[in-house]
Amino acid sequence: MSRFFRVAAxxxxxxxxxxxxxxxxxxxxxxxxxxxxxxxxxxxxxxxEWVTLGFDxxxxxxxxxxxxxxxxxxxxxxxxxxxxxKAGVPVWPLGPGIYTVTYTVVSSDDGHETAxxxxxxxxxAQ
Length: 126
Ligand SMILES: [Cu+2]
Description:
Helix content is 22%, strand content 37%.
């Protein structure tokens, strides 16, 4: 019985040590946002014509970007366009307000989806 527990304890310890390393490798295979234009938390005085996101891995078909106003209306003026490691959407002319960019990116490496969001603000021009 004590031998069983010792073997079980060693197996459990191996899982505890290997678990985070395995998880880290899986996480690196996902696609992550590296930058955006407008940048996250940017304060602008005019509407962007496009919202563009840059990823560490080429986004695959199924990647979508929405640009939501404070009432949840999507102000993207067309479908999400992919170009290498970038994906973007044209937007309607935006007035002053807070906008939420939400995205779901499909990794061309492993097909996994990663979702995220960030804000930018447009203030009246002085
Ligand atoms: Cu993945």
